[in-house]
Write a structure and sequence with these properties.
Blueprint: H1 23-26, H2 41-74, H3 84-91, H4 95-113
């Protein structure tokens, strides 16, 4: 089962695998990772919980990458740097949220430069 997203100095655990669905099955709105075919409620609870935790971990990880990208784009050393207004517009955020994400991204990048806090993205 997937584990919650660890904080800075904790090692990352990989979430449960998200098995990709064949295209023809994905077109069926009733089909979702084959959960509808599980009859045993215990097994259904286990697998659906694994999926929920995996999606949550994936979302948390994606937000970290958004923050790092925002920080890199806002870096004043870049000749093509973007303002937080520009970043907010591109990411469909409010400007206040973009500012917070830039700061969060800077914190993450500082941790990565120091060798702690950032794991391999794969």
């Amino acid at each position: 089962m997937a584990e919650p997203t660890p904080r800075r100095n904790e090692p990352r655990l990989r979430p449960a695998p998200l098995l990709f669905e064949p295209a023809q099955v994905a077109d069926d709105p009733e089909h979702f990772f084959d959960l509808e075919s599980i009859d045993d409620p215990r097994a259904l609870l286990t697998r659906s919980t694994e999926l929920a935790l995996a999606f949550r971990a994936a979302a948390d990880r994606a937000v970290e990458f958004q923050a790092m990208a925002a920080a890199q784009l806002a870096d004043p050393r870049r000749f093509d740097r973007l303002t937080t207004t520009d970043i907010a517009e591109r990411a469909e955020w409010t400007e206040d949220y973009a500012k917070k994400m830039v700061e969060f991204g800077r914190d993450l990048l500082r941790g990565a430069e120091g060798g702690a806090g950032h794991a391999d993205p794969v």
